[in-house]
Inverse folding.
């Protein structure tokens, strides 16, 4: 094996270790301990963040914020990663310490001139856009760490009526429409609830842990109808267009010959308030026929709005 290949493999080896000795390196690469020390000094001069520990049990240790070894991307891969970075710039808070501009500049700098020109052009043609929110989510990183370690969180949450302390076990976090969300098991209610991360006013990571047999993917796929209610809604042409933008409605839209349509599906009774609030926004573009509870909710909101503006 050439020296260059050994140096490259050593960088990858070191990056996977927290601590090691020159003897470990010598054994791994079939070289002398003296050569191992020399190679380690060379990769340190190249910028790999390792430092020595003195003493009888001393050796080498890597820093927490390690530099990744060189990775070779082709032009299409580099372009895809560059634009993935660009999509993150719309979020005020991220669940990890990073500088998106710095990462983008480093990747951009490695590209040949013709690839740079292509990206410059594409930046004016393609944008992975999210609404730019000015609301920070300062506890985002804490939530991710607690999710990994299965810690219970004690949070104060801003709700509709008053702030409330809750003990929750986070399942994870996800971003949607420029905001971060945390599905979590409410220990008092023994029920998974969805929290907006920016509405968490205070957070304490408890030393208590709780193993909950559900991950984020499981939660996304976990919707079940416990108390079935038929939802039947007539739609105008514009009503169809509006409802097609909602993933939870789009699969259930039926278009008729006159370019109008309808929705005929089953929802859970617990979703009635949520569904009522959505359809009231669409005004005369839709007409809910069933269930009667949604019809009554929409009427009540309409009367309340009329009285509000008298």
């Amino acid at each position: 094996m050439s020296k260059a290949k050994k140096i490259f493999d050593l960088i990858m080896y070191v990056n996977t270790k927290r601590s090691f000795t020159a003897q470990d390196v010598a054994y791994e690469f079939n070289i002398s301990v003296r050569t191992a020390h020399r190679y380690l000094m060379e990769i340190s001069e190249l910028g790999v963040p390792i430092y020595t520990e003195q003493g009888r049990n001393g050796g080498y240790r890597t820093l927490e914020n390690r530099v990744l070894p060189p990775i070779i991307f082709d032009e299409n891969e580099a372009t895809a990663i560059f634009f993935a970075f660009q999509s993150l710039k719309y979020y005020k808070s991220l669940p990890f310490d990073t500088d998106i501009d710095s990462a983008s500049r480093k990747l951009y700098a490695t590209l040949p001139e013709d690839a740079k020109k292509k990206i410059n052009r594409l930046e004016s043609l393609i944008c992975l856009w999210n609404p730019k929110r000015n609301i920070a989510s300062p506890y985002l990183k804490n939530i991710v760490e607690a999710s990994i370690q299965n810690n219970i969180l004690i949070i104060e949450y801003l709700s509709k009526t008053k702030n409330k302390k809750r003990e929750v076990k986070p399942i994870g976090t996800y971003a949607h429409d420029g905001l971060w969300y945390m599905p979590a098991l409410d220990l008092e209610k023994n029920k998974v609830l969805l929290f907006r991360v920016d509405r968490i006013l205070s957070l304490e990571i408890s030393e208590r842990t709780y193993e909950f047999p559900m991950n984020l993917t499981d939660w996304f796929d976990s919707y079940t109808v416990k108390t079935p209610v038929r939802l039947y809604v007539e739609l105008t042409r514009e009503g169809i267009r509006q409802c097609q933008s909602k993933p939870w409605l789009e699969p259930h839209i039926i278009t008729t010959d006159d370019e109008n349509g309808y929705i005929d599906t089953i929802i859970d009774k617990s979703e009635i308030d949520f569904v009522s609030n959505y359809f009231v926004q669409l005004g005369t573009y839709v007409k809910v026929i069933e269930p009667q509870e949604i019809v009554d909710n929409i009427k009540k909101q309409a009367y309340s709005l009329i009285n509000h503006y008298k």
